[in-house]
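job 3f2a | input accepted
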Amino acid sequence: MAAERTTNQWDVKRLAGALGAEVHGIKLAQADAGDIAEIKRLLNEHMVLFFPGQHMSQEEHVAFGRPFGPLEGHPNLSERNDIEYPEIFQLTASQGGIADEWHTDLTFLPQPALMSILNMLTCPDSGGDTMWTSLCAAFEALSPPMRDMCEGLSALHDAHPHDRSDRMAIHPVVRTHPETGRKALYVNEHFTRRIVEMSGPESDAMLRFLTRWVQNPQFTVRYHWSAGTIGMWDNRATQHCVLNDFDEERIIQRVTVMGDLPEGADPRWQPWTQDAARSAMSRHDRQLAGFLKGQGAEAAE
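job 3f2a | predicted structure (301 res):
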């Protein structure tokens, strides 16, 4: 696709139809308030941005992230870090740090990650790409009946993958982006455990469909890293996954912008419980009996 021009005369090249752009012509370590505003605008448009050739220090990385909101390293895994800045979370592939399951960052928190800013320090020559998917495009491609049902549901997320199943939160299955107004499917295979308003088997089937649906290639972009690239993505509208297809070292450092508050339509149904199940079944039996009785009466006439 042809490069686009922003008002700041940066080169912005779209990478896929659904999301993603690579940006040249700015030194992020020297970004001023106007640059930050333009980056926010581009992020709302493209959802994930890549800035090659930045080679930012840890100090510059943290300073660049601060204008976007409060920063956090990682609420569960930051003890792995042996670096100066607590706002930075480091993942090293040789120590098992490969985020190779589709997820949105920190959805097990009541106020999850708003944005993530990644500094690629070391990456393999081939392999180790990351994929992102547009949760907005995924929602919009659902049929109207499925969209309507999803908007009436909520889901439980927990930090079981981090051995912290006690950390959990409930969020709408469909959330509305506070700046763009677009609706997004907000469930992921890594942290989402249960559709609150459904029985266990129904929830399993629904989550299996939705978490696979968002991985449809038409909603995704795939990016091959080079050392020194800064990648940033909007956690309110995306999921991502690292392709674990490499043997060389891969080291990333990330600052996470906090302060999100997922909002969507209010659930239209009560949470599912065993008592609710028995009640629902008894109502169904009465309705079915009444229907059959009515049919029998009509046949006798």
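job 3f2a | The chain is about 25% helix and 25% strand.
job 3f2a | closed
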